[in-house]
């Protein structure tokens, strides 16, 4: 089983920075939401960030080498997790940082596929190994992260039961849905699904499955598709689902959807902060790094 986890944390956090009036947030929380990367917003006791909890679950799942992809202004990550670019010891995890540089002529990062491509260029050892990838602003369970380590499939993703997500229906309806074959391998990903096509996208259990960007990749197999990822025509970004689907054209049945039915706390917008704080209070009464 691999022990490498790459965490995407270099995005622009545009939705989090939108100005909204919320009475349940303090001035400090609003300031952090406007200024920090989402995974660094202090939602835990003593102002510890959400990323602490993701790292805790990663450690419990058996990951050892953590690569955090940060933006060009990502120095705050190093204040939390280690001053060196490589091989910082954080509660037994070895944390290294990759920087997602913004190409000349752009004002925002170039998407998740570009982030991962820049990371594996900076850490080329990943191109001969397997590794997992996830977001910094989602709290994936220990069980889900372990499932990515345990699968024998070259590539895989956690295939979440859409009905188990504890988000407003309007938000859930915007999630891209995955089409799987009877064996659970990925066939297609449909963005912004309309209600009239949902039935044909249900899996063998009659469930609609969504991806929350929790992947396992074979570095050698994925690299050429990562390097040559086209730009999404609407969002003007290079995205990991595009990379995965392009790899399937040459390597069918190589991306397994691992079924999970559980909620994934998410810090996308300011409205999520209070809910995530409550979730952590209920499920993580203390951060215990020893077990």
What does this structure look like?
By secondary structure, this protein is of the alpha/beta class. Helices cover 28% and strands 20% of the residues. The chain has nine helices and ten strands. The protein has helices at 27-35, 50-60, 75-81, 112-122, 142-150, 169-172, 219-227, 240-250, 273-283, and strands at residues 4-8, 65-70, 88-90, 93-99, 130-135, 155-161, 177-180, 186-190, 209-218, 255-260. Strand 3 (88-90) and strand 4 form a beta hairpin. Helix 2 packs across helix 5 (142-150) and helix 7 (219-227) packs across helix 8. The mean pLDDT is 94.
List the helices and strands and how they pair.
Layout: E1 4-8, H1 27-35, H2 50-60, E2 65-70, H3 75-81, E3 88-90, E4 93-99, H4 112-122, E5 130-135, H5 142-150, E6 155-161, H6 169-172, E7 177-180, E8 186-190, E9 209-218, H7 219-227, H8 240-250, E10 255-260, H9 273-283
Parallel strand pairs: 1-2, 1-5, 2-4, 6-10
Antiparallel strand pairs: 3-4, 5-9, 6-9, 7-8, 7-9
The global form is: globular
Q: What does the main sheet amount to?
A: 10 strands, mixed
Average pLDDT confidence is 94
* DSSP, total strands: 10
Helix content: 25-40%
The helix tally amounts to: 9
> Which residues form runs of ≥5 with pLDDT under 50?
none
First CA to last CA: what distance? 20 Å
What is the subunit organization of this protein? single chain
Strand content: 15-25%
Radius of gyration: 18 Å
| Class derived from helix and strand content | alpha/beta
Name the helix and strand elements from N-terminus to C-terminus, one letter apiece: EHHEHEEHEHEHEEEHHEH
């Amino acid at each position: 089983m691999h022990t490498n986890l790459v965490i995407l944390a270099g995005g622009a956090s545009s939705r989090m920075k939108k100005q909204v009036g919320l009475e349940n947030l303090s001035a400090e929380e609003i300031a952090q939401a406007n200024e920090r990367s989402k995974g660094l917003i202090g939602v835990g006791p003593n102002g510890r960030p959400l990323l602490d909890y993701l790292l805790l679950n990663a450690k419990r799942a058996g990951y050892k080498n953590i690569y955090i992809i940060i933006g060009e202004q990502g120095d705050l990550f190093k204040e939390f997790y280690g001053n060196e670019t490589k091989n910082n010891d954080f509660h037994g995890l070895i944390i290294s940082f990759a920087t997602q540089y913004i190409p000349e002529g752009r004002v925002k990062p170039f998407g998740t596929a570009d982030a991962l491509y820049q990371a594996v260029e900076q850490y080329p050892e990943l191109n001969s190994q397997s590794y997992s990838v996830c977001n910094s602003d989602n709290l994936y369970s220990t069980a889900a992260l372990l499932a990515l380590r345990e699968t024998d499939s070259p590539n895989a993703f956690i295939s979440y039961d859409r009905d188990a997500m504890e988000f407003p229906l309007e938000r859930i309806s915007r999630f891209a849905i995955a089409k799987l074959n009877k064996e659970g391998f990925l066939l297609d990903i449909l963005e912004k699904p309309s209600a009239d096509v949902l039935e044909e996208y249900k899996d063998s259990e009659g469930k609609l499955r969504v991806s929350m960007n929790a992947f396992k990749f074979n570095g050698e197999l994925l690299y050429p598709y990562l390097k040559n990822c086209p730009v999404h025509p609407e969002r003007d970004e290079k995205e990991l689902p595009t990379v995965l689907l392009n790899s399937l054209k040459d390597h069918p049945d190589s991306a397994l959807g691992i079924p999970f039915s559980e909620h994934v706390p998410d810090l996308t917008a300011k409205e999520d902060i209070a809910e995530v704080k409550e979730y952590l209070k209920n499920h993580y009464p203390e951060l215990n790094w020893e077990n």
